[in-house]
Fold this protein.
Amino acid sequence: MKKTYELDFYGKKMSFEVGRLAKQANAAVLARHGDTALLVTAVLAEKAREGLDFFPLLVDFEERYYSAGKVPGGFIKREGRPSESAILSGRMIDRSIRSLFPEWMRNDVHVVATVMSVDQKNPANILGINGASLALAISDIPWDGPIAAVRIGCINGELVVNPDESDLPESTLDLVVAGHKGGITMVEAGAKEVSEELLVDAMELANEAIRKIVCFIEDVVAEIGKPKAQLPAPAVIEEIDGWMRDNLTDEIYQAVQINQKQERGAAIAAAQQKAEDFFAESRPDSAKYIASVMDEMVKKAVRRLLLVDRKRADGRAMNQLRPITCEVDILPMTHGSALFTRGETQSLGVTTLGMMGSDDQVMDGLKLDEPSKRFILHYNFPPYSVGEVRPMRGPGRREIGHGALAERALRATFPDDESFPYVVRQVSDILESNGSSSMASVCSGSLSMMAAGVPVKKAVAGIAMGLIADGGQVCILTDIQGLEDHYGDMDFKVAGTRDGVTALQMDNKAGGITREILTEALSQAREGRFQILDVMDAAIAAPRAELAPTAPKIVSFNIDPEKIRDVIGSGGKTIRGIVQQTGAKIDVEDSGRVSVAAVSDDAAQMAVRIIRDLVREVEAGEIFVGTVTRMLSFGVFIEVLPGKEGMLHVSEVSGYRVPTLEDAFDIGDKVLVTVKEIDDMHRVNLSRKRLLDRFDELALNPDFAEQIPVERAREEKYSQFPKGGGERSGVGRERDGGERRDRGDRGHDRPRGGDAEGDRQHRPARRFERERKN
């Protein structure tokens, strides 16, 4: 039977419908927040999977393009592999609910959140966590929920619960918190250098809001919840447990105190092999059971070492960092590179600069008019980094999640496109891993971008913290390694500058965490972060002033949008010609913003000059080195700017009388000219003669120095002709007593009615105007 449950939550209505959709799942909920709606289903496999040493939970976040009124791009026109945002949303649901399943459970559980409607105001991922919580809580799947999730923003200094998507650009904090009545289970945050105190305040507000949703879900469960399935717990073989406890406890305790990861792993494996050899005959199929017991014994040994003996496996103090080294300029041909090593964790950061408009990442998701990404960080985790052998395929969910965290940490200090018109792709290749590789990626990324000359505002460092709590005892660890991460109760990663936090991620299995513990942990993380920044500053303290020689040189400027067609040309002919001539990449936006990228600065400046010349207007008095394009009987046309021609009349060629223009120029000749005037019909009239007495001056100008010797030689050639002319004899010139008379004078001396002689005398002038118009 269909039932709908509603909750008025901070001025917005949340509703959850059950009983109508997907009735063959163990539970299905249609969750709505505003006009955003998701169908969340939960299904439990009937049988447990044999041989697993982990709980097989799978969470899928399915984005349907119809939910936003969009048609998928590409040739196939249907949804394909999950987008990055879908993978990150699925990971948030997974991290929120996973710790509340029984540790021994080996039945597959599949949670699917399908986005069916998006109102562009209320985020689907937060609603997906709440929908998954209700679906699991009312189902018969064993789960120690419910949980709930909220988003906290900080707008104009005020903390806001579940702000609209449109408000987030103005927010200095984007914090997602999931938890239950007992405490927080998951935190994911990006920030603009906020204080640790603000983070604690935000998490307390989130906890308060979460309790309201949890109480609401508990009321729903009390009404329609199913009894939980009684799944058989794994059998306990007391014979094996007792033997391993009596014979291997001390050996394991000594093994976990070995500093080196591989040596420690070998010692633990040797202890496990003793147990397998001992039971090889009496219990030949017990290897997997022995492995599970060994894992539990290692966990107890690590926790005893930390909580009772107050020691760490590698001998460090609780707030002590592992040894750190930072190096830059590791790779010769990249735009920027850095190597960050912390203990046995090593990240190679490599920066590549690209061009806006062609190299930025187009986001084809559910958001409408979503801007493309200028800063991209990709995280790679090859198997050799942990000494394993496995196929290398595309990035998994873990790689995408770690890359997104590091990207979020560095984005807060990334320059805007006005001051730095580049796309930056940052890659972190993990070469070694023993905990905290995502935070190592933050450090290597910051170093690499500085080495590349990216004008980041500040250096950013990241650190992973851990917490172990048992029986009232609490131990906070700085810079956890893999062993402490795996067997601890909480790990949280904090990244930021000296002025504040830029990213935070936390996963908690310890239940309630007091404000005092959170404050102490964040304070300890701040101290560690500052120590890391000191080491990083010793390697490179500020972004380099110049880009690497191998990096593209990008120049951005604005033109009149009406002139874009002049740059593009018919069918793209003009812009292709510029690219072919200069080797530069050119991007022209509809707003009139032009970006030019080239490996050499000379090529970039050449392309910029050509484009500026295409769109600018010629002004009287300007001097150009133009190219002869056409020759007429009375003058030549000279291209002074791309696509812009002017007329050099025969009378403006030289101080000498040139018999014919063919004696003066050839098509394609370079000619130094000045703009004499622009007439009322916008025609450009040029003069060469007016520059004759300025050759010495212009020879000092680098734009004209190469052309001056050509003009001197040209004038020397013209000197063989009679002095004082300019117009060709017979073309509108008469001589009377050795003196020149202009057309006006001739017109007064002759009848202009229609006699053949007068018509003959005025025919050249009419031909001049006709050809000039053509």
About this structure: The radius of gyration is 38 Å.
